[in-house]
Amino acid sequence: MKKFIVHLSNKQNELMTKELIVNHVNYLKILKKSGVLPFCGPCADGTALMIIDAPSFEKAKNYVENDPFSKVNYYMDRKIVEIEEATLDNNFLLEEVLGNPSSKEK
Q: Where does residue 35 rank: exposed (0-12), middle (13-18), buried (19+ CB within 10 A)?
């Protein structure tokens, strides 16, 4: 499974309603229970982040665009970027970095 970071910004506060936030939270619960959403939350600067586990960029984008917030364009900017998690199991990607000649020049 691939991981994607979603950065949500350019919020339109005037679109917020009780119905919208309830629908958004219910959608997040579905994603969380299905193992798609390991993390989400607002940032101190008014933006928000999500981490999505999905088999492809297209599927991750589908999850984002089906969020009630996206359907009304609450966050006008939605950037999705695939990430590779650095962990103990993969030695924090050390071999990948050392195997790349351009990284030695830095």
A: exposed
